[in-house]
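Chapter review: from sequence to fold.
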Amino acid sequence: MRTLPAFALALITMLSACSKQPETVAPPPASSLATMRIAAPSLDGERRWDGVVDSVQRAELTAQTQGRVAAVLVDVDDPVAAGQVLLRLDAIEQTANLRAAQAQLRAAQASLHEAEANYRRFQALGDKQYVSKAQLDQVRAARDAATAVRDAADENARQTAQVAGYATVRSPYAGVIAARKVEPGESVMAGQALLTVLAPGELRVDVLVPEADAELIRRAGKASVVTDTGRRIAVSRVVVAPAADSATHTTLVRLSLADKSLRPGTPIAAVFPIAGKPQLWLPASALVQRGEVNAFYVLIDGQPQLRQVRLGERRGDRVEVITGLASGDLLVLDPVAAAQALVAQRRQEGSRD
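The C-alpha cell string follows.
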C-alpha cells in the first residue's frame, strides 16, 4: 500500500479545514434586554414658563427734537442721580426759535403796557365826560386785544423754550446706565433712542401664559422663580392681567421679586403651583434620535420595535413624551442593544429564507 507524501497530507488537511463553515455566534435573545414598564403619566403639581428679569423702573430715553449730539456725559454701568444731565444736543435751530419767541413776547408786553396806559388816560377823561363812551369802549377793546396778543406770545415762548430744553437730556430718577446708543457727532431725529436708564432696586418678571391657565394662576395667588443654577427665589406679588391678548390668546402675568440679588436681563423660569397636564417622563438615555425623528424601542411580542414619539421639554436626564407611548408599554432601556438584537433577528430570518 502506497503512502501519500507528507506535503500531500498537509494539503488535504488544509483543504478540509477551509471547507468547514465558520461557526456563527448566536445573538442574545430579545428577552434578555433590560426593560421597564411605562407607568401611568403623573400629574405634575407645578407649571413653569420662561421669562426674563427686568427692572420695575426702566426708562428708554429718546430724542424729543432733532439735532446733532454735542456731548454724551455718561457710559454704560455709570450710576446717575435724578435730574443729572446725561446728554446734550447742538440744537441751533431750536435756540434761534426761542430767541425769536422771546423777542415777540417782549414786543407784545410793550404794546400791552402802552394800551393799558392809554386806557387809564381815557378812563380819567371819561370820568370828567371829556370823551364819549364810544371812544372809551374803543380804547378798552385795544387794551384787551393787546392782552390777548401778550398771552399768545407768552404761551408760544413757553412752548419754544420747552422744545429748546429737549436739547438737554436728564435722568428721570437715580439709577444706572444700562445702554448707550449714540455717540458725539451723530445726527438724531425725534423719537430716536439715546440711552437706557434703570433703577436696579425693584425687579420683576413678566411671562405670557395660555389663557386657560390664567384663572388658575389668579386663584393660586403665589409663585416662585428658578434660576438656571436651580436656585428657587420667592415672589412677593403675583399680578394677572385682566384681559388676554386676542391675537396670541395669552395673558400677561407679572411677578414682583423680593430677592434683589438678580440682575436685569437674566433668564429665569416662573413656577406656579397649579396642576398641569399629565406628563410622561422617560430616561433620555433610552431615546433614539435620527435626524429630526425621535423614537424609543419597545418590546412587542418579545421583539424590539422602534416607536416614533413627539417630545416636550427636557429636565436633566429625563425627557417628556407627549405622544407615541402609553402606560403599559415595555420600554427598552438600552437602544444600542435593542438595535443589535433587531439586526440579528433579521439576519436569522433571511438565512432561513
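Two observations follow directly from the output. The longest helix spans residues 92-127. Confidence is low (pLDDT under 50) at residues 1-26.
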